[in-house]
Amino acid sequence: MKILLLITDLEIGGTPTVVRELAIRLNRKNADGAGGVTVACLSRWGPVADQLREAGVPVVAFEATGAANLFGTTRRLVSLIHRERFDVVFSFLIHANLVASLASPFYPGVRFLQSIQTTQPTPRWHWRLQSMVHHAAERIVVPSPSAAQAAMEWADVPPEKIVVIPNAVECECASGAGGPPVSSLSIEKDHGRAARTTSTIGFIGRLDPIKRIADLLQAVALLDDRFTVELFGEGEDRPRIESEIARLHLESRAILHGPIASPNDALRSIDVLVVPSAAEGFGLVLIEAMAAGVPVVATDVPGIRDVVKNEVTGLLVPVASPIKLAAAIGRIVDDGVLRDRLIAAACIDVQARFSWDVVLPKYKMLLASV
């Protein structure tokens, strides 16, 4: 079986990471040379494209620069399908889903799948467009029950058409010295924690208004000087975040790092991961942190609550509540028993529900069924 994974862009981010890891693993399955996986993106070549190429996965960038390139991009996709004779085209995110749907009438023998990765209600036109293009796909893949509910309510996707396949991460839990299972990164961090007098709070992701990073900054301002915050990522909300740092006089306690190639580079330096979003389809960074032995605090919203079990594998707080966010962060840092319990339970839960050993067979079953 020849498979094309089509995505909007291959910049650093959650969905490009999912596509990268899926492509690499499916290509391992086809190591005998039969079939194989190609990844294409609508926009320019990005850093994830380099990672895919280094892993031996063929990559194509259509170099689209906007809506004006829609039909030219569709023609390039049609040409690629014709040249490579793909059996399945699996598209991710609304722009890729649109282009794939426009190409689908040219290839009635090719099976088309689409993926919706969000529970974000806006922009509404995304959902209206998705309601028009999902008819071109045999199945709609979503990462969580909350994303499935959003797809049914806002894009009129029939429930029988939806397949829930969670995002995944590598997770290898090992038993600590006489203690519960923890990750190797957690053990490494424990060796250095006792010597430090400060605690680092981390955020990893797009600097986007939906992430409500200002709430995190306000929470840090409520905590004492032991607490610093490091923000890893880039996006349109950066100027407002910089203004909020200045307004709260956090210049000495807040660092904007920009994007990073691997989340583990950031997870090694932080004590608590915080995701204060107003909406998430899943929150890949949450399971990346949980697998790495970093405790998480996040908002109690659809998508996130499908991943984090409150008071069991992490702490959940209401949206737009810096006071409760600060209290949850303080609890994890000051209560070592709670922190260790959350880390151990999170590692076990990720291994049971979100490891590639569990998730990849779900994709293989889906592809076999089409």
Structure description:
The chain has 14 helices and 15 strands. It is of the alpha/beta class and 370 residues long. The chain folds into 2 domains: 2-168 and 356-369, Rossmann fold (3-Layer(aba) Sandwich); 173-353, Glycogen Phosphorylase B (Rossmann fold, 3-Layer(aba) Sandwich), CATH 3.40.50. α8 crosses α12. It is globular.
Write a short abstract of this structure.
The chain is an alpha/beta fold.
Number of helices: 14
The total domain count is: 2
Instruction: Describe the global form.
Output: globular
The number of distinct β-strands equals: 15
Helix content: 40-55%
What are the segments in which pLDDT stays under 50 over at least 5 consecutive residues?
none
First-last Cα distance: 11 Å
Q: How does the SSE layout of this entry go?
A:
Layout: E1 2-7, H1 14-29, E2 36-41, H2 47-54, E3 59-61, H3 70-84, E4 88-92, H4 94-103, E5 111-115, H5 124-133, E6 139-142, H6 145-155, E7 162-164, E8 173-175, E9 181-183, H7 184-193, E10 199-204, H8 213-222, E11 227-232, H9 238-247, E12 254-258, H10 263-267, E13 272-275, H11 284-291, E14 296-299, E15 315-317, H12 322-334, H13 336-353, H14 356-369
Parallel strand pairs: 1-2, 1-4, 2-3, 4-5, 5-6, 6-7, 10-11, 10-13, 11-12, 13-14, 14-15
Antiparallel strand pairs: 8-9
Notable characteristics:
single chain, 370 residues, alpha/beta, Rossmann fold, seven-stranded parallel sheet, six-stranded parallel sheet, 43% helix, globular
